[in-house]
Amino acid sequence: MAQEEVQNGGPEKVAEVSFTALKPQLMVEAPKAADAVQFYKTAFGAVEAGRTVYPKRKAEQEQPHVLSAQLELAGSTILVSDIADNSTPRVKTEGTGCVLCLETEDVEAAIAKAVSAGGVAEGEVTEGDGACCGGRVGKVKDPYGYVWLICSPAKKCGDAEA
Amino acid sequence: MAQEEVQNGGPEKVAEVSFTALKPQLMVEAPKAADAVQFYKTAFGAVEAGRTVYPKRKAEQEQPHVLSAQLELAGSTILVSDIADNSTPRVKTEGTGCVLCLETEDVEAAIAKAVSAGGVAEGEVTEGDGACCGGRVGKVKDPYGYVWLICSPAKKCGDAEA
């Protein structure tokens, strides 16, 4: 029903947006992401291609907060991230859960297209340092409950920013 | 801790298992999978590569039950499936949610390896006609709450079995 409302395309066609990668991002209750990464390596033979972390911010924290660990598995990439109540609010979902990262050069156009199709944008597009290994990121919830992170292509994966 | 218990590998190394594909499978409350597929086409430009359905089983059902629709998106494949209380019990998860299909030629070995790493096998390996587009399928829940479907490679995608 929303297609008729699209302003930036023809009456029957919305703007073309191309995506360069799809990466499931597994949210894990902090600080278990590092353990989860080890499990996926041992259980499935996943290979870690990079990890972005925050340093310990509290003396009692034994492990750094994993913003995003990138794992190569079966020709695909998955991301594993610590999620905590008091951190990374822009990628926080309702509890832990899998979100789907879609990379594109045009974050705003992609979000606009998804919204015109019936998705709901959540929050603002921000400069993220957690989701999808950095870059700009916005969030769209689809009508079926799944959260899609629309983000600019990962360019800094593997560079620890901590 | 479980690695020492593995019988089919060396004391420090478990059997090699290779995976040929990773496909996030989005479970959607039946009968909304067809709508979800249309949404992903419109919102993200996903291309449908195949769909396996059950025929209508009740006169009041307006749409066939989608066992698995295969969508190509950003160089990856996602699966979209109707999930209902009274059907496809072998892939039923707690409510709707994303599961991760891992394809391999050796389902049993892959499950054994995941279990030795700390995963929990759920149910028996069965001949599935829903998950991952047919073939043999087993289920492993990892210590972080994610469900992995370990299945033989999809060979029948696009062939409607109804």
From TrEMBL, chains A, B:
Pfam families cross-referenced by the UniProt entry: At5g48480-like_C, At5g48480-like_N
Gene3D superfamilies: 2,3-Dihydroxybiphenyl 1,2-Dioxygenase, domain 1 (3.10.180.10)
Limits of the VOC domain: 21-153
Xref: InterPro entries: At5g48480-like_C, At5g48480-like_N, Glyas_Bleomycin-R_OHBP_Dase, VOC_core
Transmembrane segment boundaries: none
Coiled coil (residue ranges): none
Protein name (database record): VOC domain-containing protein
Organism: Gossypium raimondii
